[in-house]
Known about the structure:
Blueprint: E1 3-6, H1 12-15, E2 20-22, E3 26-29, E4 38-42, E5 48-54, E6 60-66, H2 74-87, H3 91-94, E7 99-104, E8 113-118, E9 121-126, H4 129-133, H5 135-146, E10 150-155, E11 168-173, E12 181-185, E13 188-192, H6 207-215, E14 221-225, H7 231-238, E15 243-248, H8 251-263, E16 270-273, H9 276-285, E17 290-295, H10 307-324, E18 325-335, H11 342-356, E19 360-367, E20 385-391
Helix pairs in contact: 2-5, 6-7, 9-10, 10-11
Amino acid sequence: MKIVRLKPGRDKATRRRHPWIFSGAIDSVSREPDPGEDVLVTDANGMPLGVGAWSPTSQIRVRLWRFDEGPVDGAFLHDLLARALAVREGMAERFDTNALRLVNAEADGLPGVTVDRYDDVLVGQFASIGAERHKAEIVDALLDLTGAASFYERSDLDVRKREGLEPTRGLLAGPEPPERVAIHEGPVRFEVDVREGHKTGFYLDQRENRRLVAESAKGRRVLNTFCYTGGFGVAAQVAGAASVTHVDLSGPALEQARRNTALNGLPEAEFIQGNVFQELRGFRDRARDFDLVVLDPPKFADSKALAEKALRGYKDINILGFKLVSPGGLLATFSCSGAIDAPTFRMVVAEAACDAGRRVRILRELRQAPDHVEALNFPEGLYLKGLLCHVE
């Protein structure tokens, strides 16, 4: 196995079991590895630290599979995946759902590998060159461990280009999935388009937050912004919301939100296609208000270099949100930008409340669903932050 030796003093993060080795930490390489090839990482004195995949085109030059010596073969990956599934043992029953995240990349010791289960269909993303190299072994192991019928790939990710890979999607194993896969979260039903939907088809990370928002929605007028296929609004309507208004820029997403509304036997909601910032300003100018506002925007920052611009966006959207909440109402606000941590997001929301002239109390801090596990050695895995606020 080819050896990657680190510079003196650059092994501290690795000894804390952080899985990323950046290019600037590397002193030497015994021989140039092939892209995705497994390499042995050592400290400056040659002591082994772990085995990871070599990525020559990325700033993250090595992503570690293990923190000891040994092969990364089918048996090792099968065991690693079995342990990931064991962590989630009983979660489907506890959350009363047939849709669950099974593998959460670095947090499960599988850098670049994300796999969600929708009923009998597994949908995976392979974002790193190492994940791509071991893809067949990972697919075979998961099908064996889960008994699922199909494995569909949604590696249509721009981040793959940093790894020297092209985006790709398609069936990897089993029969073609149905046009839309039916899932449920408790009494709420949704259809998921695993071929064309965002990410792997649905935002499973918001499952518990949808439930919490729904519990507060009875009798309230709900505004669901960046609604995608209606998740928060449909759950709120099932729970007895007085009315629901969905806003999104995507026409196809709104059509699926309509289908999800009908799927649950609900009366017609209000669907508005348009730029969310502009639509919220229009509501403000017309003095229209709501009893519960959900702000669930897409990622505003892909990197720390874009964080400052993203913070302005989060502040603007939250000022508008606060201005639209009726006295005594609620605001559920989120950020899925990993480059912005929870304290910073909370500070921005506080500034927005001040600028909007509203007195706000935090009822609950929100985060990604428990099946989207977080690892103490990989704080970057906590990407979804949220606040449920009472607004006066």
